[in-house]
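Cross-posted from the bioinformatics board.
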Amino acid sequence: MSALSALIRRDILVSLRVGGGALIGVLFFLSVVVLMPFGVGPDIALLKRIGPAILWLGALLASLLTIDRLFAADHEDGSLDLIVMSRTPLELTCMAKAAAHWIASGIPLIVAAPILGLMLNLDGAATAGVMLTLLAGTPALTFTGMIGAALAVTLRRGGLLLPVLVLPLSIPTLIFGVIAANAAAAGESLLGAPFSILCALSLFGLVAGPIAAAASLRQGLD
Amino acid sequence: MSLIDLANPSRFLALTERLLPWLAAATAILMGIGLQQAFFTAPDDYQQGAVVKIMFIHVPNAWLSMFVWGVMCIAALGTLVWRHPLADVAAKAAAPIGAAFTFIALVTGSLWGRPMWGTYWEWDARLTSVLILFLMYLGIMALWRAVDDPSRAARAAAILTLVGAINLPIIKFSVDWWNTLHQPASVLRIGGPTIHPSLLMPLLIMALAFSLLFLTLHLAAMRNEILRRRVRTLRLMQASAAQA
């Protein structure tokens, strides 16, 4: 088994076990979606109209809150130093860790979306739209969040600084994700310009995120 | 004396101490000329009336908010690639100034929007992307203050600055790519400016005046940052000597 696949397997297993925090993201997603009707009012028609946006916001905030687990646990027990010093290129290692994080934390959010969509009275087309746009967009959130997580490794007490750094970078993903999801809810074809741009953002994050994160880790750990 | 000699902080302090009074005077004079041109010589717009004169404050600040991020990017490259001693001082000093220019651009634009568009704010592409730029400036300033050691903070902030540079072309071309309420490019566009020279000249003078203002404030802030680091080093030396 190559080093990268071993790393992915290790990260997924650690986060799925007790204390790993993979499913905490889903719980937070649920909390956000439950809180929205309390704030907005129980008007079913309104919730159906803004439902895709609520689901996208919940997924964004949930992925934002779990992103610091990407490097923090490894940094604390010293494995991050070993990973940085290994022969595998650090960019590929960061890509592998982000992929593992997405599998462990991002996919549960996508799976939870239809169930939460029921609470917001979304119909089939809207739910399918939200799921597909989340599938295309959560990798972008993970990869840009990884940049913030790598920067936060250098801080001793990151606190809320990490979301503040990552949030401006995630806004384009949110914008295009909601536009594409709303287009699907309205009955238009999903595969239009906003969805393509969403996929482009994920692909761009796939390349730019590991490069920036690797540079941050190298600078921050010495 | 070559440019590399300026990398010595003491030489930089000596040079800027001689240079700053002249820069400040030139800024004041140019700002005075520009304001006089803007408010007394420039004509009213046929549609907007005298409200168009907010442009002479709003547009230079908007240009500079992007220009200062560009300066920070060059300083970031200086830190990461060339390891220039004063690059991180320049980057740290520029961030609050750029944030202030962005804030003034947003506020004056909002005040201009109320009589012209009927609203203080609109979530169109240009306004949203400039607001994101403002949030990024605040994030950079927070990152600088989150790490005790300035040189480690410098490298983290340098990477974040370069990542955030993607926002600059988005802001510039947002009015072309999307159907926005904000008016399209009128000065820096293919085909030349569409503003009448009687309004364009005061605008360019004000832009030059604000640029000189940035240069003056930036050099003064760099001096302060160098002195601040010296105080910090002295305090650390004093604390370790007291321990011994």
